[in-house]
Design a protein that fits this description.
Two copies of one chain form a homodimer. By secondary structure, chain A is an alpha/beta fold. In chain A, about 20% of the residues lie in helices and about 25% in strands. Chain A has helices at about 140-155, 175-180, 195-200, 220-225, 240-250, 275-280, 295-310, 325-330, and strands at about 5-10, 25-30, 45-55, 80-90, 100-105, 110-115, 125, 160-165, 185-190, 210, 230-235, 250-255, 285, 315-320, 340-345. In chain A, helix 3 (about 195-200) links the parallel strand 9 (about 185-190) and strand 10 (about 210). The radius of gyration of chain A is 21 Å and the shape is globular.
Chain lengths: ~350, ~350
């Protein structure tokens, strides 16, 4: 008789059109058959999940929309996201038991992973043993690569630029700021709390930072921090901050539209009123997805790894312990509860 | 005694923050001294103005704002704009009596023009005698060059693109559509009346066109004309059309933000709600001014002149006869009263 093992899972309950709540997910004890073996002939491999990533884009997969760039979650199935996992058994000649991998996996203890379900370069064997494993979900993963692509490919970062980053202590923002500083830029971050602002200034090397919630007039705040105007706005939030930034861009300014976390849960998103500045200031405003630039991933990876090993880059994580805390960790992203990149620690290797 | 000549002028009365009205300008009989001579040592030349250009950007110069890319008009002085003029007398060795020039001039019968008050390449001697003079204000002038720069430099026009143009029968729009057609694109224009739509389809070679005012649902209209989506939106209007276009862009789409005529006179411009599409569709949205690309002007001029002489391009003008009709002609731009490029015929050479 086939051996069944318990497999705790975080199940996606059903589509929503509002901010995610913990009750949109359910912790369930499922089971996994086959004695933790990858089915022969499947070409798949079975992993034990070690840590999982909470990313704002996942909220889009909770909407019943086929129009998005990524298909929605399947109700009744585990949440899907980036994770670092250890191969337990494999029917794929490229992966062997004991290998550590980062790639798309399920929010559960064990997952069966198929190489063919992953984007090119998105499933990677982890060869570095002197970097925290969870960094492959942040600093060295999709969020870090998003910062790199946004600055270099979208914003044409150059020495001396003045740079504004919103959600600056988040998974993407903290690397945006540090990379820009390493390129000789003046960098100011906005964040949602004093604690985050202190972090930006004392640990992450930002020139300055402010709590957007404490600014009654964001336009005035930006004029204070950027008396000469903003060359680059790395926009992780949309909404009021984008509108205020538009008023303060320099001629030839660039805006990377990376996330609109302030607008994610609104069915009628807030209007942006100051786009006429695009003309008078000749601003280039561009949305992007890191997945369109995967050919640059190795370049990014090696450069940022080097900076990290040289002690030139710091990365702050907010680690939730245990799969049972995954729903709360995910929901917390949308109220800014996390300080730094939100990950979930599921198991030790 | 110095000979004084009458010089009828259209005077700018004072700054406004709303749509322009005829009463914001005043026809006045001024005078010009010196016997229609350029003052010796002035380096200037005296011209007789033949035709003047009405352009929407001029509305920005009626606002008391030094923050704009171009200084405001001077109250009590004539309106300033592009014109075609004939040199009467000259203290500038580069210009001789009888020369025809296009460049910045005043809304008056005679103007004293200084080369040094003009942008490079903006003051040009007219050498072509087989093209209507007023075309140097439209097809072969700033509006035509705006179409060229927007399509090639901003939107990276390529064969097979699907192209939406708003204000499509206007000074810029009609050339956008025709250039895109000459590059093998599918082109649809929006305009404000049946007459304009007929013009676009029957004379200007657009694949299709529609009256935006007759569409209760612009999103639905765009889905009808662009079932596969829009690659390029050449935006001359902003507002609702921009919002609807954002919903219908293809992945990798490009939006040239060229004018926001629908928003010019609003102190609190309308909000744009669909910018989240910039991310999911990886859209590049860029404002621009033709004056940043003047090094390309000769390239544009020769190419469009060739197309015109080959009969491949048509240009529709709306000509107001006489300086006294200039205020009404200008004001009409903002309600879309003009059909084609609005010019004012002041005098024959």
């Amino acid at each position: 008789m086939e051996q069944q093992m318990e497999n705790r899972q975080v199940i996606f309950k059903g589509f929503i059109d509002r901010a995610p709540r913990e009750t949109d997910m359910e912790l369930k004890v499922g089971s996994i058959g086959g004695g933790l073996k990858a089915p022969p002939g499947s070409g798949a491999f079975l992993v034990k999940n070690l840590c999982l990533s909470c990313d704002p884009y996942m909220r889009g997969r909770m909407r019943d929309s086929r129009a998005s760039y990524i298909p929605p979650f399947v109700p009744g199935q585990p949440i899907e996201g980036s994770g670092v996992s250890k191969v337990i058994d494999s029917d794929d000649p490229d992966f062997k038991p004991g290998d550590l991998v980062s790639g798309l996996t399920g929010w559960e203890e064990y997952s069966l992973v198929r190489k063919t379900d992953q984007l090119p370069n998105q499933l990677r064997k982890i060869e570095q043993h002197d970097v925290p494993l969870s960094y492959h979900l942040g600093l060295l993963g999709m969020p870090g690569f998003t910062a790199y692509v946004g600055l270099h490919e979208i914003c044409s970062l150059k020495q001396g630029d003045t740079v504004l980053v919103s959600a600056a202590s988040g998974a993407v923002g903290q690397l945006v700021g540090q990379l820009a500083k390493l390129h000789g830029c003046y960098v100011v971050g906005s964040a949602g709390s004093r604690q985050k602002v202190d972090l930006l200034k004392s640990q992450l090397g930002f020139d300055d930072a402010f709590v957007y919630k404490e600014e009654p007039d964001l336009d005035a705040a930006l004029k204070r921090y950027f008396p000469q105007g903003i060359d680059i706005y790395f926009d992780n939030v949309g909404g009021d901050m984008l509108d205020a930034a538009l008023l303060n861009m320099c001629v030839g300014g660039r805006i990377a539209v990376c996330g609109m976390v302030s607008q994610h849960s609104q069915t009628d998103p807030q209007g942006i009123h100051n786009l006429f500045n695009l003309i008078s200031k000749r601003i280039r405003m561009q949305g992007f997805l890191q997945s369109d630039y995967l050919h640059l991933f190795p370049l990014f990876f090696n450069q940022v790894l080097k900076y990290y090993k040289q002690g030139k880059i710091t990365y702050v994580e907010d680690v939730a312990q245990g799969l049972e805390h995954a729903p709360a960790a995910f929901v917390g992203l949308f109220s800014g509860r996390n300080v730094g990149k939100q990950v979930i620690h599921v198991a030790n290797p």
